[in-house]
Amino acid sequence: MAVRDADFKRMAELLKLGASMLNESCPECKVPLFKLKEDVFCPLCNRKFILVRSDEELIKTTADLSLRILEKIAVSKLEELGDLVSATTNPDKQFELVSLISMWLDVLGKLRNLTSRKG
Ligand SMILES: [Zn+2]
Known about the structure:
This protein is of the alpha+beta class. The chain has two domains: about 5-50, no CATH class; about 55-115. It is about 60% helix and about 15% strand. It contains three helices and four strands; from the N terminus they run H-E-E-E-E-H-H. It has a four-stranded antiparallel beta sheet with strand order 1-2-3-4, with helices on one face. Strand 2 and strand 3 form a beta hairpin. It is elongated, with a radius of gyration of 22 Å. The mean pLDDT is about 90. Zinc ion binds near residues 28, 45 and 47. Zinc ion binds near residues 28 and 29.
């Protein structure tokens, strides 16, 4: 893929914003990746990257990401269930929903324990 003037401009702007250019490059666009604050990304396709230095770090990072995704799911389930509880007046239904909420809260608590323990 050829780098166009606009792309160079974008890269220059990123540098002005305080981004740094890394030695690693985007496997798609073959241009150097940029790092701005905690984000590492390709200035052309905007894909985000996570740089790891070892296999061990890769495993840790992957596990971490999975946990974070699960945490997001748990939170959105809790939101959904909360809406359902407030919408129903049927005690049986409420009981069922509250049991589910309690289950998801358990999951969330375990996930938060796992993510806060590392590092
Ligand atoms: Zn790219």
